[in-house]
Fold this protein.
Amino acid sequence: MVRTMTFVSALLRTARRARHLPGLPVPFEPGGAPAPAAGLPDSRDVLLDAPDDRLAPALVSAALGEYETAAALLAATRERAEWENRDRYTVRLAAFAVSRPEWLAGWLADAPHDPDALLVKAELAIVRAWGSPARAERLRDVAPLIHSAADGDPADPVPWRIALDHARGTHASHTVFEELWGEAIRRSSHHYGCHVAALQYLSAQWYGSHRECFDFAERAAEDSLPGSLIRALPARAAFAYLVGGGGPSIPHERIDAAADLGIELSGAYEAGDPWPAEVRNLLAYVLVVRGRWPRALEEFRRIGPYATSFPWLHLAADPLGQFLELREFVRAEAAAGPSWGRERQKPGRARSGGHYA
């Protein structure tokens, strides 16, 4: 992580020095006037982790202490088997409940066996345990809540995504991990959230290696459906490798191939679509670290106004500020012409096995 952060920090220092060089565009100045150009939205219009049109009313109601809108939203995702939306909304509602838990407490008091309320309760417990100095002990206490959420709807894969996160934090063995992974994919073989949770477990930061992480991601992408966010999983493996300090174990060609697959996926969605926003933010990060300025600029265009905390929170406590500053640096690099903006040649994507599905 140190090497990659040092690299990106060096980029930003260069951007600050370059602001006064003749012939270069003037980038965004934090606290100053925005500089929209090259198809990028005005910096004042960029939002961090903006909710979609279905989640926003639920968060507004929760802020008023009311749970009914959130309950209706999650019930609809369960009844329609919208597992990806269900996972996203559960994560966002639990994050909101960290500081504003009254609405969830009221929901649980009125409907203690509601499968949707139990799901948010389990996710909230995981979030709080991960943030505790006594993480391992707190996580062990969460296990019964995850079981209750899983029993609430046996078809729901989201409790098993939570279980995979729980396994990572409790130092579960590979045998336990594979059992949980089997339960998850039996319910939804192409669930993106479960794949991300598995990838994190297999990363070098936790209980696997960079190679194992890439193998899993590439095999999962090969097995995925057209347009599935799982096709960006190799880019996520590349991110884990880059923030982990890199090294000789993964060749640059494999990283660039992962980015190329992510670019292909991103191009399948309309620019400014909030659904693939996090994947596009992740992809922009990988492209920046690889110095692929024109491609990175195009990804920032596709992101539009939808900045996400991940992955920019890995750079600084102000993810939106880092997003905007790096976006303007990339714009300046791409505008500088072939001598500065030349993109590296990249071979075709490598294939590898290792997907547990």
